[in-house]
Amino acid sequence: MAIKVIVFDLDGTLIDSNQLKYDAFFKLFPFDAPPPNIIEKVLDEFLEESRYVILREILKRVDTETINENELDNRVLALATKYNDLIVGGAKQCNEKPGAKEVLELFSKRYKLYLSSTTPEASLKEIVKHRNWNGFFCDLFGFPNDKTSVLLNIIKKESVNPDELLVVGDGKSDRNSANSVKCKYFRISNDSSLMALLDLNLKTTNLPFL
Description:
This protein is α/β, with parallel strands linked by helices. The chain is 50% helix and 13% strand.
């Protein structure tokens, strides 16, 4: 069936912010507290999880004996606030991925577009508003929504079959959510991917999705 709805990821898909988000975790902590290798290992394992999950895991590995759950919750919230301050400004100003605006302008006239991200929803809306992209999307979904639930809600809301929905993203969470609901997936693997998406005929049944 032809595509009717497209769900975009944000970071690494529409804007070039993945490195910004990665580096921000190291800026939260003084040098060697926790050791950088702990942060690196956590990011290797949990990179596509929310900042809350990542920060909790870092703190648990640094202080395995004395930290209690209430203290852990408070420290995670405090660090998450600092992390948000570090990245929101950067996400507003960083380069968009090549072809992002062209894709949004063209596809918003042909399809129902949605945005789904692990960025907290309030921050997500702030970033999109700053970039004047609000008019392209029917709705925006950020943390604490999980990507699979978002897709199921969109399918229900738009009354479409799963194979009429396309997920466009760069990460495992995008691919896994698409696989979970059995919809199509297009991977953003490099700076030419969005321009390649523009050249596809989304009305055909045999699409070269990755």
